[in-house]
Design brief:
Layout: E1 2-6, E2 14-18, E3 28-38, H1 40-49, E4 59-66, E5 79-83, E6 92-96, E7 100-102, H2 109-112, H3 115-129, E8 136-139, H4 145-156, E9 160-164, H5 168-177, E10 182-184, E11 194-199, H6 203-210, E12 213-221, E13 247-250, H7 259-271, E14 279-284, H8 288-296, E15 303-307
Parallel strand pairs: 8-9, 8-11, 9-10, 11-12, 12-13, 14-15
Antiparallel strand pairs: 1-2, 3-4, 3-6, 3-15, 4-5, 5-7
Helix pairs in contact: 3-4, 3-7
């Protein structure tokens, strides 16, 4: 098969080349990949740390070429969306059936490929907040792929949605159209407490937002775009004055169980036009270096999709 291989002598550290076909374990299906979406974390960290010749990639959509030998998962010929810790940037991918969602026939593989990390992280983070109907929910880093899914899903769940972005003037109109009730630049723009926070940024901003939680509120730390630590000042964790029982929750998507139904449901919502995949860059995988450069230099807001030809 062909794949995007880690090659630090090539532009963006990737080149198209031959790689061994994957050999599925009994609980894995073999997927013919048709599209993959890129995530900032994989191009910023996974690509930097991977050995030469590795095949990376978390998100992929395609078709089942060979069903799992143990009988689990979808049958051969089924369109699917898949999640994994590697292997998405290739023509063939072996995937645990627990991380395969069935996609609607005729759906756009590029749009569906945005679901695994961004969409499912947003969905599971919101689940962790508990019921949000009629409650105030803040989404930080709202212009990224996960943030935009979180805005849409929180609004669908009946929350009063506050979207935080570094440039409300530039991104406010889009975020309002996708379901935000307010778009703010930072903690100082929020006057009233919030019940839940889905945070994509981390660092000092997380500390500033945490103190906005009302009693019983939860902050889910999904992303860490600030690349800085969190230092809480004395008193920030006190429980008096209506601040009792506030929670700070860590998050790791691969540690979540039962993801296959979530992947399938999200893929269906995207295919039916009820969720916007927020594709801001799209092209053939021979242009992967352009997409990686745009992501690393923060020129993209939303998702970048590579089509596997």
């Amino acid at each position: 098969m062909r794949a995007l291989l880690v090659d630090r002598s090539a532009p963006a550290g990737l080149r198209l080349g031959p790689a061994p076909d994957p050999r599925p374990a009994p609980h894995q299906a073999l997927i013919r990949v048709t599209a993959t979406s890129l995530n900032y974390g994989e191009v910023r960290f996974a690509l930097r740390d991977a050995p030469e010749g590795a095949v990376l990639g978390w998100d992929a959509a395609g078709v089942v070429l060979e069903a799992a030998a143990d009988g689990s998962g979808p049958a051969a010929g089924t369109p699917v969306v898949t999640l994994g810790v590697d292997g998405a940037w290739a023509e063939l991918r072996a995937v645990d059936t627990a991380w395969i969602g069935t996609a609607r026939a005729g759906s756009d593989p590029g749009a569906v490929s945005t679901v695994p990390v961004a969409g499912t992280s947003a969905l599971r983070a919101l689940h962790r907040l508990g019921p949000v109907l009629g409650r105030r929910v803040l989404i930080t880093g709202a212009t990224g792929g996960t943030g935009r899914y979180a805005v849409q899903l929180a609004r669908r769940a009946g929350a009063y949605v506050i979207a935080s972005t570094g440039n409300p003037r530039k991104h406010g109109e889009v975020l309002l159209a996708q379901g935000a009730h307010e778009v703010v630049a930072g903690p100082g723009d929020i006057a009233d407490p919030v019940h839940g926070i889905v945070d994509m940024v981390g660092g000092p901003q997380l500390v500033q937002y945490f103190v906005l939680l009302t009693q019983g509120g939860t902050l889910v730390a999904v992303g860490h775009a600030a690349h800085e630590g969190e230092s809480f000042p004395y008193g920030a964790l006190f429980g008096d004055g209506g601040r009792h029982d506030r929670s700070l929750v860590t998050f790791s998507l691969p540690a979540c169980t039962g993801l296959a139904p979530d992947l399938g449901w999200l893929a269906d919502e995207v295919a039916l036009g009820r969720l916007d995949p927020n594709i801001s860059w799209r092209g053939g995988w021979d242009r992967a270096a352009d997409a990686v450069d745009a992501l690393l230099n923060r020129r993209l807001h939303g998702k970048a999709v590579l089509e596997i030809s």
